[in-house]
Amino acid sequence: MKNIILFGAPGVGKGTQASLLAEKFDLIHLSTGEMLRHEVAEGTPLGLRVKDIMNRGDLVGDDIVVGLIAKALDSGRNQLLDEWDELRLRRACGLGPDDPLPEQPQPSIIYDGFPRTVQQCQMLEFLFQKKNRRLDRVISIDVPQEELVRRIHERAQISNRSDDNEAVIRHRLEEYEAKTRPVLDYYKVSGRLVSVDGSGEITETNTRLCRILQHLLEQ
Ligand code: AMP
Question: I want to staple 200 with a disulfide (CB 3.0 to 4.6 A). Which of 70, 129, 133, 204 is the partner?
């Protein structure tokens, strides 16, 4: 039962890579951005609260995103059994074919786009203590600024996300520099941070990430 954070600036490809890794290694993929977009699309009270904040490219409140993660960690057996077949669930929990399935299966999780502030890191630690989980690795995908800007131009032309126009993406990068980059220093001291070069093709970055995950999940 591992907990892995995939970290990086907007445009490094966290979402794409997290999906590929989740599929390959049978991980639960928790993306706070996706959860929030779902709330907005459903028009829930939470969605109505965060819609404008997201459209501006600001970060939504720490309590809101931590609340979403806490709820996802609580969702437990039923949701997993609904979404996954038993074989996948067994693999995800490191169980053999004859091992009994636990009441609360604890599969490995990859966190994408969370935590994004030092406060969220501290709240996540508290949450992990309550849920008997621990943070195993923070993987930072590093892409030089010029390449990020190039990708952002490209994405702004093809994306249908309402926060993917150029002005907003630039603001998201500023939010990243001011509030999210300090998360790296927070994790650096714990010795659980590794960095991966994300400047090349998706498959190249994915190969690097797979190597790290393979090693980690075998431990
Ligand atoms: P993403 O899909 O990860 O790029 O997130 C899209 C938007 O959702 C961000 O620009 C924020 O407005 C919001 N968001 C997602 N995750 C977080 C988070 N951990 N903390 C604060 N805001 C978030």
Answer: 204
